[in-house]
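Purpose: get a first structural picture of the assembly so the mutagenesis plan has something to point at.
Setup: two entries, given in the order below. No constraints added.
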Amino acid sequence: MSDKASGKAPEMKHSPGQPAPTGKEPLPANKPGGASAPGAGGGAVPAKPEAPANPNDVSLTIDGRSVTVPKGTLVVDAAQKLGIEIPVFCSHPKLDPVACCRMCLVEISGPRGPMLQTACSVPVAPDMVVSTETEQVRAVQEANLAFMLLNHPLDCPICDKGGECPLQDQTMRYGPGISQLVEPKRHKNKQYLISDTIVLDQERCVVCWRCIRYLEEWEDKPQLGLFERGGATLIDIQPGKPVDAKTGGNIIDICPVGALTNRVARFAYRPWEIDRTPSICTHCSIGCNLRMDSRTHSVRRIVGRENMAVNDQWLCDKGRFAHGWINDAQRLQTPLVRKNGNLVAASWSEALEVVASKLQSIKKTSGAESIGAIGSAKLSNESNYLLQRLFRSTIGTNNIDHRAGADVAALPTGLPALVDLMKPQYGPDPKADVVMLVGVDPSEELPILDVHLKRAVRRGKTQLIIVHPRKVELTRYNGPYLGCRPGSEALLINGIAKLALKQVQNSHTAPADAAGFVADATKEALRTVCGVDVDEAKRAAELLAKAKNAVIIYGPMVAQGEQGKQVRNALTNLALITGHGSRLAYVGLEANSQGCRDVGLLPNALPGHAPLSDEKLRKTLEKTWGGPIATKAGKSYSQMLDGAGSDLKALYIMGANPASERPAWAAKLDALDFLVVQDLFLTETAQLADVVLPAVSWAEEDGTFTNLERRVQRAPKAVRSPDSKAASDWMILDHLAARLGAQWPFANVHGVTAEIAKVIPAYHGLTWDALGDQGVQWDAAAITRAKPTMQPVTQETISTDGYSVIGGTVLYDDGDLFAKTPLMQNMAFGAAVGINPADAAKMGIETGSLLKVSSAQGELILAARVDPSVRAGSVWIPESLPNAPVGALRNGAAVPHVEITPGPKSAA
Amino acid sequence: MASNGFFRGAIEIARAMGVTLTALTRKPVTIQYPFEPVSIYPRFRGRHELRRYASGLERCIGCMLCEAACPTGAIYVEAEENDPANRHSPGERYAKVYEVNLLRCVFCGDCEEACPVEAIVLGHEFALAAYSRRDLILEKEALLNPSEPMVVIRPE
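Result (structure tokens, whole complex):
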């Protein structure tokens, strides 16, 4: 164990709480022109630095060595560049300086001689002379530490920070060594919960304000504050209001002492007893970089890892805390085969033999077209690539898809780049000056994008345009908000395009024939059909028309079904008219939504977004795969499930759980001749299966994931239970392929990565070793796409009966992966329906009262949740809630309409 | 000269026999272990034990410093938060799992040195043979309930 700990992640030496030198890297590295030769200063006589060549640079002397840094750099960062460490507590590379801990006092020469100043807040000045090691500096550091330790409890042995604590380290290095305090220490709250997942120990706090500043500067939710004065000063929440920021857990990482600790990981690890694996998060499609700390084959905690192109160094609370499922006791450990109606444990060879022989016999009797495969956007590129290879080539069908796959009108290349939306602490303004979000709620669906956008708006002057039937959190920034009637997005967007056309009439950007395509979208239609304020729409159109680099992002909520294609067409029109055609992006919400499409987990495309008719790629693939590939387009996810039991006889489901989505699908899956489910848990779908194959999670096998900006990132194996017989996806598929007569050449999963890098043009060269710890973004130009043109848009008539259902997903959805972390259960959305206060008042409903929500397809009994963000006339039932399957109300319609009646009286 | 040498030899032999004869009358130093008890020096380091406070609460706080100090990796600790209603130890934290692998232990006493609460001590029990390897991994129950409890810890 210990030998593994040392070699695993050499770049992980710095704990996130410490002033990591990598964090300062956004500073442009200047050539060391001004730096004197080592020894020239000799420490005693300060060398006079030469004037820097660049007028924006400043030269100064620190401890007798000269350094040239850009104007505005802080002394502490300039010293860092020379490798001189100035101890800090309150200063953090990602936060504004406040200079409240006084630890970084150094002597800076001024007109009145050398004076003590805080290095973390003083910017460099020409010819500044800084000394960090004089007697006075030493004395003040010692005094400061003695002062901080006055009331700091000596409970390091039980403190989770012990071993990676800057206060411990600096006390050992700069501290006085003895305490002169004989009086009893001051007592404050210990084990004080500021949220369900964060524990505050006020005694340990050194009042550095990092947590306060993070919540203010990044989350824009000042939920922590300073109370009392002097030695009694403490950090606290506002009375009765726990920290509920979606990324609040980051304050644990940046706390320089053990005041804020992770409750999920409480006492479960010691920094010297863990293996650190640099990995990525798979809860959403951002692909945040994280570090997985594990011990004895179990994940103990997750902390953020810096990647300046993806997540800066932040993680959302779901990514940080919801990892209980990895080592959950309910994980499948052995293959199960149905015998006499019951699923019983079986050996791998028996289970695979059953799968292979059944698939072969069904192929013989009903043809390959009657077999389908469903992959999952939660799984790696390798798993999904092999699944489609097995079914395309060995079985010979194109019935291959995943949830939100071919049913969604997507675009192949995702976001241009996340960095376009980011405003780091020391860095340029974001490139995108306008960001339009259509049917995406980053606060619930992509929390780190939410943090980036908030920062871009507040610090980088980005403007947000939001089109969403719910008044989402980001609407609090003063951008145009278009709360249209659910389902009317196509018309609305075409309306904005029409308004924008007027704005850009004199420029050349709009296509000549544009006017004809947007004629239907009159102001009257916007007002009556979409129900939006035309002035807001005008504002949005104006912003888009004037923007230099607008990014238009839409999500699966508005892209579903036939109407989704219309939305995509409308967005294409809008982007073409306003001249932002190359920055129109579809973002999937699952970890590997992008990668699944890239590796061809679609019924109508070969790997690399090539159409099935692409002869050149087909030849390459057939040569690599050693067999012909089916040419007829297959069925999509919903078509397969709708047709299950009738024209589809067998289904192989890997990592998906359609039975939980719609009761109708569960019945159809039950009617299949043969159902194989490969999953981590005995899900609703797995319970219907004939064979269940236990798989391992992303933490237990190497894999690559492609995030929403096409960044391919590695997720290496961190843990693996020695007791479980569960196998990796690639290995299961490999063995199955062998039993089906195919000979695959993979010795390990890296071989699959290498094959992907070989056969998919966009992934050329992206082998396991080439990806590194920060991932590589594939070039959007590598795939050939038809030049976008103006498209006709038709808006289907929207029924005005009853309430329209707003879908979308929520962060704390209580799905399989969330429910296994018991401490987070109070955060879950639960079986609830969001309803506008006006509608609620009309029906005399309050939060908590039970409602019957019914449509022609079915009904649900849900608790009301009165929520002013929900549009009047609609109700909000997020998808993926286990106890509220909104699919029960759906029948292919993207926006079902429901009746609401007060339900049975609550028993409580 | 020869007679001189003869007498000298005889005297030496008699002297040696004298030593033997006096030894015959002395009490033997051999101890009939295991039939007789062995006296042990107070600083002898034998089987580990976990101590309790007089109140019966465990001293161990599960800080894992002994595990860090152990040169052979013989100690394994898992900590957990105390349930205030059913306390194991006085503070926030206690050891849920505490195992000492006697097959690995070299009885160096570094764990005692590292322990901030003087919970783990090396006692005087040295008869540690067992019939299986598993029996040589002492779990927390065994450590907390030694046959001869509450060994007086050595003064510093």
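Chain B is about 25% helix and 15% strand.
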